[in-house]
Amino acid sequence: MTGGSSPALGAGPSRTGPGDAVPTFRGPVDPAALGPTLVHEHVFVGHPELDLNHPHPEWDPDRAIEDAVERLTRLHGLGVRTVVDLTVLGLGRDVARLAAVAERVPLHLVAATGYYTADVLPAFFGTHGPGRPVGGPDPLVEFFVRDIEEGIAGTGVRAGMLKVVTDEPGITPDVARVMSAAAEAHVRTGVTITTHSRPASRTGPAQQEFLGARGVPPERIIIGHSGDSEDLDQLRALMDAGSTIGMDRFGMEHVLPDERRVATVLALLAEGYADRMVLSHDAACFSRVTPPSWRAVHAPHWHYENLSRRVLPMLRAGGASAADLHRMLVVNPARLLAPGPARRRHAPVAGAAPTPRPS
Ligand SMILES: [Zn+2]
Fold this sequence. Notes:
Helix content: 25-40%
Number of domains: 1
Bound molecules: zinc ion
Largest sheet: 8 strands, parallel
Number of strands: 12
Low-confidence stretches: 1-18, 343-359
């Protein structure tokens, strides 16, 4: 990632004063010091209940940590300095396990909060929350805000990104509940929301509208998986409204070949959209959903090094400038990870107050 690893960070965000730090696994980092950043990745995607009862033959927790340390260290060697792990509830988030990786790698890891479901939530959420049998405030809001303000599961690691999902079923009642909770958490904390969208179902525009109606400025939304699409009109509209689009699945050639993903990025760069795109892989060291043996056969380039080794050279050959790459890999991620104005409005008093719990 030589072009993107330029130390010329002068084009970065100007707002870097105290209180504007980005939470990482090893503490707060100035946004201007994040460097080349992959904004949509995973380290371990699992399923704790399945793993407990029907362990996957390719999953060895101890070996997995060693493997992740090796992969992330190699990634640092290619110039990447920060990786955002968007593994939230529903994907088997295990922050303690990730902390064991983070303490041994030279790059910054950022945790996320949110809920990954394309349709329904587990039964717990059916009985908890306003108007439900057990009652109380919506636990989703409590979970998200606590993860951001206090830290995750007693680890002290605070989430630096929110994540929601809208896929083929659209904004189902439970998906709406997750997105509403994320919007409330955003309003209270200022943390940016990244989405999993499905451009073929036009869920990106729907997410922008739904979140916008609940107080989330489009500038604080990354419409993820936009790179799965070659529908330039849809992508331009998302960016013209203020959002950043995630060209974040390089290597997922079983969905769309990288050559075509690159062509879309180049077309939009030529139109001046460098400040509205971010690049990533949505890769993982281990995912039970598509395990390593499957990936090796069906998506051999779907790994952390694909951008540095294959995609950036393709972008450069197609005319992307060093400034374009710097913007997509350094400037835009720093802008989006920097705490937003909502955090200022509420912090420290209101934002730090515990959620009132009705009797
Ligand atoms: Zn993902």
